[in-house]
Structures are given as C-alpha cells and as structure tokens.
Amino acid sequence: MLVLCAGSRNEDKQPKLSLQRYHSDNSLSEVHESVDTSAPRKGWRRILAYMGPAYLVSVGYMDPGNWATDLQGGAKFGYQLIWVLLMSNLMALLLQSLSARLGIVRRRDLAQANREAYPPVVNFCLYLLAELAIAACDLAEVLGMALGIHLLTGLPLVWGVGITVLDTLLLLWLQNYGIRKLEAFIIALVAVIGISFLIEIFLAKPALGEVVKGFVPSFLNSDALYIAVGIIGATVMPHNLYLHSALVQTRKIKPDRDGIKRAIKYNNIDSTIALNAAFFVNAAILILAASVFFSSGHSSVARIEDAHELLKPLLGSKFAPLLFAIALIAAGQSSTITGTMAGQIVMEGYLRIRINPWLRRLITRLIAIIPAVITILIWGDDKIDALLVLSQVLLSVQLGFAMIPLIHFVSDKQTMGEFAIKPLTKIVSWLVAGILVYLNVQMVVQQSLLVFEHDGNLVWKFIIIIAAIIFSWLFLTMTFLPLIRSRHKKQSARVHGEIPSLQNLSVQPSQMIAVALDFSLKDEKIIAHAIGQGKKEASYVLLHIVESVSAKFLGEQSDDDETRIDRQRLETYSQQLQGLGYKVQVQLGYQNRVKGIVKIVKESNADMLVMGAHRHSGLKDYLFGETIEAVRHELNIPVLIVNV
Fold first, then answer.
1. pLDDT at res. 448
2. What CATH number has the domain bearing residue 128?
C-alpha cells in the first residue's frame, strides 16, 4: 500500500542575487582546497604551504577588545593579571588545535558539524549565539578603529565609526586575489602591531622582576574577576573556533593517513607560532599599562583615549602615542576581515544560506555601528571603553556554547577514527571547559546579584530569570545530548569502520506503500517513483495532511472549503490510478503534519513510505520544521525521499 502525504504549502521560489540557498558541502567554497600542499616540497617550503590559517585566527586575539581589557587590567591591577593572559593563551592553543583537527580530519567546520549532530531548535539557538558573538566582536573592531582614527587625525568619534563602513571595499578587493594574498596582508598588519608594541615596551622599561611575579596565579576579587573574564573572552574567542575549522580546509591535502597526520602536525606548529605572537601583543599592552599607568599612580586609566594622551608625557616620546594609534587601527582592520569570514562560515554552516560578501559585511557592520553610535550620542565618548569591555565579556559568556560541541566532535571515534583526541587531551579539554564555564557563571551571578539587591528593577529581574532558564536548558542539552543518545552515522563521515561481509541481500517486495503528496505540480513525479517501487502488485494509499485553521482545531470533524478540496483532489488521483489498474485508497490527515503522516502510515500497515523533498534549507527548516527528519525517526520502515 502506498501513502501519499504532504502539507498544503507550495515551494517558495529561490531567492536571487543577495541571498540564495547554498548546497555545497565545502566550507568557504570559493577558496576551498585552493592551496595545494600535496605537491612534493622539501624543508621550509613544505611547512610554509600550511602556514597562514592560524595568523588569520590570531588577529582575533589582538583586536581592540583585547586592548580595552588589557589596558584596564594593567592600569588597575598592575602585573597581577599576566597569568590570566598566559592561561588564556594556553587554552587558546588547545582549543584552536582541536578546531583545526576537526576541519582537517572531517573536512567540516564547527557550524556544519553542529548542524549534523544537534536538533534544529538547539542549532538555531547556537546560530543566534554565534551571530551575537560575531556582532560583539565587530562592535569592538568598530570602536577600536574609530578610536584609532580619532587619535591619529582628530576626527570626531562618530565620524570614525561611519568611516569604518568603508572597510567593506577593502575586504572585497582583497578577496579577488585569493586566500594567500589575504593571509599575507593580515600577517603584515600583525607585524605592524607587534613592532609598534616592541618599541613601546622598550620606551616604557618595565620592571622585569614584577613582570615575572605576574605569571604566578593570585586571588581575584569581583572587580579583577570581571576584567579577567573579559580578558579570557577577548583571548579565547568563540567565533575563532568556527573560523579555524574552515580555514584549514583551504589547504588541499592527501586524504590518507600520512597526509592527515602531516596536516595536523604543521597546523599545530602554525597555531603555536601565531598565537604566541598574539600573546606577546596582549602581554605587551598589559605590561605597558602596568609600567606606565599603575606604577605612576594613574590606576584610574580605563579609556584607550586616556592611555594615548598619557603616553607622551609619561614616556617622554612623541612617537609613543603615534605608534599606539597606528597599531590600534591595524588591529581593528585585521580583525574585521576575519570577523566577516567567520560570519560567512556560521551562516552557511548552520542555515546553508549564502549571502553576498558585501551585503554580509554591511549588515554585520551596521549591527555593530548602531549600539556604538547610540552610546556616543547619549553617554558620550567616556562610555566607549566600558562598551568595549562589555563586548568581550559577552564573547566569554558564549564561549562554552562553541567549545563544548567541539570537544564532543573531536572525541568521537566513529567520525574521527584514529585521529580522535587521546584520553589525556580529552581530560585537559574538559578541565579547560569546566574552568571557563565556572568563571563565566561566577561572573554572571555576581553581576546579576547587583540587580536583585535593589528594590524595583522588576523588568530586568524577569529578563535575567528567563535568560537563565533558557541558557541552562541550552547548555545542558548541548552538553549531555551527545552522551545520552546513540549517534546516527553521518553521511559525511570520512573515516569508516571495518568493511562488513555482504551475505543477506534479499529484500521482500513492498506490499503496502505509503506516499506523501502536497498537491503541487510535482505530485506526478512522487507517484511515479512510488509505483516504480511496487508496480501493480502493491496497494497504495494516497495521503495528504490538511493544515487549515479549521483542521487544526476540529481535526476529523473539519469540513471547511480547504478540507473538501483536498479530499476531492485525492479522490481524483485515486480514480485515475484505479483506471490504470492500480489498487488505491485515499486518506486525509489533520492538525500536525508529522504526527498525521506517522499515524496514517502505521494504521495502514505500510511497509514503505515515499515522500517528496523540496530541499528547504536554512531558516525554512526552523520556520516549517524538518518534516522528513522527524517522520523517518518515528518509523522503522524504509522511507524513499524523492527530490522534487
């Protein structure tokens, strides 16, 4: 028996130009495997072929958001928080190596892996958090570049914010020259930042003994903890985990055991060099603030602008503030490019929607500019640095939602094979995750208690409670779902188990086939495929789910115009097929599409279901639901999916 079922909704036309469905399985498809590392090379040339992705990632570890947290940490607490920077850098090395391993072994970025592993609702929440993290990062870049332009030229801060929109043109220009040219440009900007602070440190002459003491962990009060969490959020950035897992796929590698091992090895070297360079920059900023401001009693310096103004009189050099401003602009410009790439990876990976790069850049930049402009116009320039630190705290709070799935994926022997991380690495990874989550929870609780200590603020109290419930549900689901359910074998897995012995290949022909129709022009194709499975020997049930308002409330008692038209159409199909000699009956379902299909299939004792797939992707999966996935998980019979 064949059951035909679908909803009353017709397929939307595919958007054009700015927004389109994206069906490629390749991350950053325009530069995917564009650098061939499989060609024979010797010595440094072999290593250099792999070098580059980690430098694009590293700029996120020295963006203007880091400047704000490092300056405040050094000015307020001296060298006390250097150990936090070191701990953050070690965490970053571990997590970025895991991200690179995921991309190299599975040829999947983190967003794609999440989409394949988690339910749509969880994925949509993770997508929103990833976009919020990118927006927070871009906010820091907007403010940093605007401050740099203001300090260098004297232009008002609001004008500087507006000028940052123009970097879209620079990004598009660089993309025309390929990934290697983009990497070279980023490395040049990193060199500008590094050289600038090397000169600044030489001028500052910090007390080396005090610097060494700063590497010893110490107790953090509530104020220091807030800055420390901001430093961690600015250093270990969630969108960098998405970015690195995609960038390593720009290298074409041999897909054998030796090729994968070589790629992992050289990418770990790349990450170590690049992230240690980022650590030097962050440490230089904090040490500069501690040696210049904290040691001279200017511990209240909390603004980048104040730091710039004090550098000249305190260091006695007119070049110090100039280098400071140039490095700030370079940091903002370099990190804004990689932030755009991370946004593209997240959108394509989660929603499978590709948006034109200029439009994606413009939207992201506008989202960042709006709060920056509002802050400047209402509260003035004095609140810019507080907004910078807040953006980094937001990044840190969201870190766990990128980090925990990553650890799950690289620990999975089914998909990673022999390249799954070893038990010791797994223990350290979960320990790092636990520390970061604990620090974030502690910081959020402390800040939330300040709201509950005062009478009133009912709206904010309600928002905090609702947010705590949602975040707790998402965190628990994301963390424990992979542990409590058996993983479905992913079609995209590149590492397979042992080859089974093919002994029993006989299949009983279907006697009762169920087919799902949606009353579109593609019904004929679906019916043809169904008949191709059972011929005239099988029986068929034509099924459709009525989704009118009346049907949703009255169910089988519904007798509205849509229900009558749907029943008449099924009967017309049935009469045509019966005239051709097929055994056919019809059945309408009501209310819920998934439950209706499953109910009719089971009641008709069908031993096969045929459904049409309109290839909805991305946002439509969340708006309309993934009917096929939900139905096939409820049934234990073969389900034939016909792409229409």
1. 72
2. 1.10.4160.10
Mapping DSSP to helix (H, G, I), strand (E, B) and coil, where does residue 384 land? helix
CA–CA separation, 280 and 235 (whole Å): 12
Q: What is the mean pLDDT of the chain?
A: 78
What pLDDT, in 10s, does the model give residues 539-569? 999 999 988 777 777 778 878 888 888 899 9
CATH number of 550's domain: 3.40.50.620
Return all residues near 295 (Cβ < 8 A) that are at least 6 apart: 78, 207
pLDDT of residue 9: 38
Backbone angles phi, psi at 352, to 5 degrees: 55, 40
Torsion of CA 259, 262, 268, 273, to 10 degrees: -120
What secondary structure letter does DSSP report for 453? Answer: T
The CA distance from 140 to 293, in Å, is 23
Domain extent, residue 558, equals 512-643
Residue identified by tokens 């440490």 is: 283
Residue 542 and residue 5: Cα distance in Å, rounded? 7
Q: Which residues contact 203 (CB under 8 A, 6 or more apart)?
A: 315, 317, 320
Q: Token digits for 497?
A: 């188990």
Note whether residue 430 is domain-resident. Answer: no
What backbone phi and psi angles, to 5 degrees, belong to 561? -65, -40
Q: What is the DSSP string of 457-498?
A: -HHHHHHHHHHHHHHHHHHHHHHHHHHHSPPPPPTT-SS--P
User: What is the helix (H) or strand (E) element at residue 587, kind and residue range?
Assistant: strand 583-590
Query: Could you say which DSSP state residue 29 is in?
Result: G
- Give per-residue pLDDT as tens, 245-280: 998 998 888 888 888 999 999 999 999 998 888 888
